[in-house]
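Journal club prep — side note

Before the paper discussion, L.F. wants everyone to see what a predicted structure for a comparable chain looks like in token form. Sequence:
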Amino acid sequence: MGIVIVKNGTPSGNRHLCKSCSRSQYTVGYRESDLILICCNVRPNLQIPFAVHKCSDYDDKFAPSYEQMEKLAMDLRPRASKKTRGFDLSIVSKPVRQEFDGTAESDDEGEDVDAVAYASVGDFSGDD
């Protein structure tokens, strides 16, 4: 049989959310029934007779404050890199005019055509 998951069902356990809230007074006696829970967030202060599962104004007393997090934070700055990210724009394609001397045999004897070839700096085509 498969596992059945129920969303927003009855919570299991009886842990008080107020036990870790900074705005509550949580007093426990020797017996299990000796428990006094006072919410200090409302005026007048309110005694809660049940285990609280969710609270709209919960403030975790174990979470660090903004000043404590700022003190613990490391100051990170990006390193300067000599490597270029993306396309390297220092290598620019520019037209190179190659002239033909006319001694080579060609099929088109009637036309003289100036050929322009595009090459980039660092072109490794094998011609030196």
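L.F.'s comment for the group: The chain has a mean pLDDT of 75. Keep this in mind when we get to the figures.
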